[in-house]
Specification:
5 helices, Pseudouridine synthase, 278 residues
Length: 278
């Protein structure tokens, strides 16, 4: 079966310890097999190119997000990380490139996140539940600090206190400074584009939700395409069948995980090129 293409960036191994592997995950590549993705995944690439398996990711990064990914090499180590995360002992840091001049003072966004799997996007709920109004979303909090700005864009350090779907993206939208290439949250009028248009999240929407969460087996999700594709004589789906939801113009989000800190351990990832505004 045809898989959607991913960007041809390497899955870079940062540290290879006896029980822990850290990598710099490229944007567009899902962490594990989900939806239409089987081989074009971080775990699939690590097995095929480095012979590393089995592996146990201890946290998740959305398909379009790049940066630090920590992977345990055995269930015992994975369980230790899990205990640290569940106990609230782990701090996470991301960097994002956002629209406009972000405020100089630290900004704290405390707004519930309501994720709609059908639309593949989240909304923020600001307010307090009372007898007439009930907030449907889950409690979420993110701290933001400006690193630099050039008057058009800003590089912002993002520290999520909780871990909700699209939390950083939605909370940056709440500040009035969404991620500069995030077509899903640059405006409120994006539902039709996220489902039918050429946005970075189109494949996720057509798969029925985020690739990281919709991991059930799918039936054939292909459509005829007029564009010419190479024909594999051993492939029963060739010719002229393209993966559903891929438009050929996808790019990674300007959102990158740079640091995870826990009890007596710290793992870091270099900043991406787009984080420099010079």
């Amino acid at each position: 079966m045809h898989e959607p293409p991913v960007m041809a960036w390497d899955v870079e191994v940062l540290q290879n310890e006896p029980d822990v592997l850290t990598i710099c995950k490229p944007a567009s590549v899902p962490v594990h097999p989900c939806g239409q993705y089987r081989k074009n995944t971080v775990l699939g690439i690590l097995q095929a190119e480095y012979g590393l398996a089995p592996l146990y990711p201890i946290h998740r990064l959305d398909r379009l997000v790049s940066g630090l990914l920590i992977v345990a090499k055995n269930p015992a180590k994975a369980d230790i990380f899990r205990q640290h995360i569940e106990a609230g002992l782990v701090q996470k840091q991301y960097v994002a490139k956002v629209v406009g001049v972000f405020p100089d003072a630290e900004q704290v966004v405390d707004a519930n996140i309501d994720y709609n799997a059908r639309e593949g996007r989240s909304t923020a709920e600001v307010g307090i539940s009372n007898g007439d109004t009930t907030l449907k979303g889950k409690a979420a909090c993110t701290k933001f600090t400006r690193i630099s700005t050039n008057g058009i864009y800003s590089i912002v350090l993002c520290e999520p206190v909780t871990g909700r779907t699209h939390q950083i993206r939605v909370h940056l939208q709440c500040t009035g400074h969404p991620i500069a290439n995030d077509m899903l949250y640059l405006s409120d009028d994006v539902v039709s584009r996220s489902t039918l248009g050429t946005t970075a999240d189109r494949a996720a929407s057509l798969s029925g939700g985020s690739p990281e969460t919709s991991c059930e087996s799918h039936k054939e999700e292909y459509k005829y395409c007029s564009e010419d594709f190479s024909i594999d004589p051993m492939c029963t789906h060739c010719p002229n069948l393209a993966p559903n939801g891929y438009d050929g113009h996808e790019e990674g989000l300007w959102l990158h995980c740079v640091r995870y800190t826990g009890p007596e351990w710290v793992y870091e990832c270099p900043y991406p090129d787009w984080a420099s505004l010079t």
